[in-house]
Design goal:
CATH class of the largest domain: Mainly Beta
Low-confidence stretches: 1-11
Mean pLDDT: 77
Distance between the termini: 45 Å
Length: 134
């Protein structure tokens, strides 16, 4: 019996063995994405998945800070982070800020603001935010 055929059969079946096979064959980024999505599901109904957000709406999203960038442009600093929730990512920008205590890569947080897509990726400017425990 071919191993790939066995794997396909196990994945196609529901049940503990199929779920175990799926968990064992996932790569690390798939595992992290599934955990982040599961975290967001248990929270308030107002928290949306990033991939389901519509530009122009005020949205509340929960995710993990993947990266931070300080953009010095013409004497106006801007702190930019990439917030990832397992389904997608959004750029969050605070204009006029060089640093916000507590916001570091790997930190979990909830942000609320208007989603814009004027740049190449979805962006929220100057949102309200809430830091979550690590």
């Amino acid at each position: 019996m071919d191993v790939s055929t066995t794997g396909e059969r196990l994945r196609s079946h529901e049940g503990p063995l199929g779920r175990l096979w799926h968990r064992l064959t996932q790569n690390q980024s798939e595992v992290e994405a599934a955990e982040l999505i599961a975290e967001g599901v248990g929270h308030a109904a107002t928290v949306a998945r990033i991939d389901c957000c519509t530009p122009g709406e005020t949205v509340t999203v929960r995710g993990m800070v993947r990266s931070m960038t300080l953009r010095p442009r013409s004497n106006v600093p801007a702190l930019e982070i990439e917030l990832y929730d397992g389904s997608g990512s959004v750029n969050v920008v605070w204009l006029g800020r060089r640093r916000i205590p507590g916001i570091d890569p790997g930190r979990s947080m909830v942000v609320t603001g208007r989603l814009t897509c004027n740049t190449e990726s979805p962006t929220i400017f100057n949102p309200r935010y809430e830091l979550k425990p690590g």
